[in-house]
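Technical note accompanying the year-one report. For the benefit of new consortium partners, we illustrate the data format agreed upon in the data management plan: each record pairs a sequence with a C-alpha cell string. No post-processing was applied to the example shown here.
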Amino acid sequence: MTSIWDRANRQLHDLAVYEPGKPIEETARELGVDPNEIIKLASNENSLGPSPKAVATMRAAIESAQLYPDGSGRYLRKAIAERLGLGAENVILGNGSNEVIEFIAHAFLNRKDEVITSEYAFIAYKLIAQLFDARTIETPTINFQPDLDRMLSAVTPKTKIIFIANPNNPTGALIARGNIDNFVDHVPDGVITVLDEAYFEFLDDPPDTLRHVRDGRDVVVLRTFSKIHGLASLRVGYGIGRPELIEVLQKTRQPFNVNGIAQIGALAALEDEEHLRKTKRLVDSGRAYFENEFRAMKLKFNPSAGNFVFVNVSNGPAVFKKLLAMKIIVRPLLGYSLPEWLRITVGTMEQNEKCIAALKKALS
C-alpha cells in the first residue's frame, strides 16, 4: 500500500508545524509538581488574566450555549468599527488574527506566487505561504529593524502579499510612524500590505495605519483580543480594510468561525478601559525592570515595544532547559534562526523577579 503522503498536497511534506509556548500542564507533569508552581512567560499572554468584565458576561452567556453565534459578528464588528471611526463593513472577525491571515491567503495566493516578509518576522507568515505552495522572500534586517527599502525592491510581478508585524514578534522591533507610512505609500498597486498590530495597544505613540484604509489602499491591519485584553484562549482577532477588500475576505470565511461566547467576551473587554490601563502599566514597569537587569548582567538585548523582552543569553535552548527545571517557561527561538536568544513575556513583578533570579543561576 502506498503512503497517504503520496496523495497529499506536496507542499505539506515539509511544512513545519507551528510550535506554541510549552504548556503549563505538560511542564508540571514532566517535573512532577503542582501546575500552580509553574511560571509561564513564553506566549506573551496577559499576566493579569482576562478582563473581569469579559469574565462576568461570558459566565452569563454560557446559559445560552445551545444557540449558534451571530454568524456575521455584527455587534462586535460594529463596536470595533465605532472605536476606530470606521464602519462595520471595514471589519472582519477571525478565530484569532491568524485566521484572517489565512483568509488573505485564500483570497489572493496561488501556487508559485510570492509573499515578502523580513527575516525574524512572525513565523506564521512563512507557514501560511508554504501551505498555499507560495514562495516566501525574506529580506534582511538592520539591527533587527526590517530594511523597508529592500522589501520594496524585492517586489516582482509574482508578489501578492507583504507582511509586516509592528511591533515585530519575536524581536520587539518597532518601525517609526513616518517610515511605515512612506513604505505603504510606495507599495505598488496590486500588492496587499498586511500590517500585523497584535501589540498595538502597548504603544505610547502608535502609528495611524488606519489612514491607509481610509485612503482606499490595499492594506489589511490586523489586531487581536489575545494580548492586552487577556482573551488568548477565546481566539478572537480582526482585520481592518477598505469595504471591497473586506467583502472579498468574507467570501473565504467559514460560517460561525468565531464562537458566540468569545464574541460576547470580546465585546465586554473592548469596554474595559481600566483593565487595559492596568495591563499597560504593568507591562511598562516590568519591561523596564527586565531591561535594567539585563544591563546590570551585561546581556545584549533589543529594546521591545511589546509585552515581552528579547535577550541574548548565548545559548537559548540550553538556558531554556535550565529555566524549565526551575519551573519557569520562556521561549527559545531556534525556529527563528536565533539560537542565542530568548523571548520572555513580561509577567507580574513577582514573576519577573523570580525569572531574573533563575536566569542569573542559569547563566552562572
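Partners are asked to follow this layout when depositing records. The chain has a mean pLDDT of 92.
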